[in-house]
From TrEMBL:
The lineage of its organism: Bacteria, Bacillati, Bacillota, Bacilli, Lactobacillales. Keywords: Membrane, Transmembrane, Transmembrane helix. The keyword Zinc-finger does not apply. It comes from Enterococcus cecorum. Pfam families: DUF1538. The chain crosses the membrane at residues 12-30, 36-58, 79-98, 118-141, 148-172, 178-197, 209-229, 266-285, 297-322, 334-356, 372-393, 399-416, 428-449, 461-483. InterPro entries: UmpAB (IPR011435). This is DUF1538 domain-containing protein.
Amino acid sequence: MQVLQAKFKEVFFSVLPITLIVILLHLTISPVPGAVLWRFLIGEMFVVIGLTLFLIGVDLAIHPLGDLTGTFLAKTNKLWTVLLGGIIVGFFICAAEPDLIVLANQIEQVTQKMMASTTLLMSVSLGLAVMLAIGFLRIFYNFPLYKLLLGIYGLIFLLSIPTNPAFLAMAFDASGSTTGVLAVPFILALSVGISKLKKDSKASEKDSFGLVAIASSGAIVAVLLLHLLSPKNELATPVFELASDNQAIWSHFAHLLFHSIKEGTISVLPLFLIFVVLQLISFRLKKREVYRMFIGFGYVHIGLIIFLLGVSGGLMDIGGLIGHQLASFDRKTWILAVGLILGVATILSEPAVYVLTDQIEEVTSGYIQKKAILASLAVGVGLAVFLSVLRVLVPQIQLWHYLLPGYLLALGLMFFTPKMFIGMAFDAGGVATGPMTATFILAFIQGAADKIESANLIIDGFGMIALVALMPIIMLELLGVLFKLKNKREGI
């Protein structure tokens, strides 16, 4: 019961700021139809309940599965077995990531199924799985993280040159969406297997930083290759459906229920089958432990279904509608200000951020305090959403105008920031792209892009998640540089 209360409290406070902002906007400058507001509030309730159950299930089943799988692979004492096993399990873990499922559905809807959600999910999952294997190799052979990241992002830069701007935005958004509540802990748990293959366990523990960043870069490479290798068909005229109060509240959710059940089942079933197979051939857990795992998978399954129902039934609708309304104002400062506030509120309410701040404070022995880390992340993510709105409003600004100098700066800072900060900084990109970013704020940006005549819904409606994932990297690397300078001045 204490675990349930703790998880519920964690999720509740992570969605509360968005709820309060929406209600405040409804009462002041952006009123929405009554049915839409009620669907949003019910959707938020579903999101809280769904994520609570999902996270409990992750603790009961997904974390242990990662640990057990890593141990099983390490026992083989064969690197190729570890790599192959990591690829297979990593693929299915990524395919079950809630944020990625939401993004894939939104891309399918906006492109009128020219980019099918299943195709995107499979491509991104394969890309992540392959890069995960490369990350394992890096740890095993002690290859420097900054050199590998330079190589990966150099490849991404080359692939980006001939890529359609719409696919560039989708690729970087997909990368930000892979590092969610499911993939990150599982990837870190799998890295235990590699640490057991190495004699120097302390070095391997240090090397685990950056593994998430390497894996998520596979999503970018996969989508760019998917575009370059596919027939060059023109994308259909984008469609964005604004929410209305035509549908009754509960029938709206009932209409979406089957699709949510289908998606949740397809996502979780492969992981469950992997556990069953490994239990029969290797794990041999006791009945009580197996029962606990089964209960955990049940929580993950039911929680994911309820979460997806809440997102599609309430959050996406009202996010798009508010973005559309604010974009219609003559004074564009309103939508820019709301975008900035949404970014700051989202990052400050994200539970994983506080885990990261504790980690950095511990690593720096208190020299960099929590307040400084929180402030820098809040400014960074708020600025990311602000710049995304600005890109929608100003047709001359393209996504690469942000991403190219941003990643050049991030890669350049690797040569000046302490090495321990590099992995933490690149991993931190996934911390910022939580459930609210991939749902409400994504819809908010798309609603604005649909209203502004000079904006393109496909090109300008995506890319926000990419910026939100980029800014924490830069901010934490800058903190690392400050930490290094402070140590020099104090002679530490």
